[in-house]
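Thanks for the sequence, V.! I ran Bifunctional DNA primase/polymerase right away. Repeating your input here for the record:
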Amino acid sequence: MLAVSGGKRQRAARDRMASAARSYAALGWPCTPGAHPPAGGDRACSCDRLGCPDPGAHPVSGAWALEASVDPDVLARWWGKRPDANIILPTGRVFDVFDVPAAAGEPALARIEADGLPIGPVASVGGERYLFFVATRGAPVDEDEWWSCHLDTSPETVAETPGMRWHCRDSYVVAPPSVLPYGREVAWIRPPEGGPLPDPLRLLEVLSDSCEAAR
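Predicted structure:
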């Protein structure tokens, strides 16, 4: 019985990513498989890149932007082949994401709630960064005022918003329940409920102020 129960727990754990990907697809959020920490060895990432700057937090395929899908059959095939693959969500399609240090994200979330501002899904990345999901601006006319960045960029050089990363067009985020090296996880603080996402402009000032205060 213990062996059977253990086997069930193992299968449930291995299906966790596939189940989450299906849930995101049901919301209309395209997914693509991501790298993950290997089960053994001394490498932090399953990819072949030596010194990977974002272990476990980047897509498996270089064609992720074209391949990301909400098709349940496609997702079943991907996670059937790679049950341990993390989940990557492209941004700039259904939503954008403000990605800030946890030291800024926690007080910002408290202020947003206290001020009664609309708040959407919020996730924690290994307890180190907070992801705020907001409505996408797509390709705005005021192009110069918006930027798109991958997880391995260094947006801290942007003086106006120290520590903030704005994931919009041509970018992505790693999604819960993805697993990161050294036992860290990506987890929801406020899970998605399928409702309208908040206007990013209404949250930008609060998040920018929090990033500045956390410097």
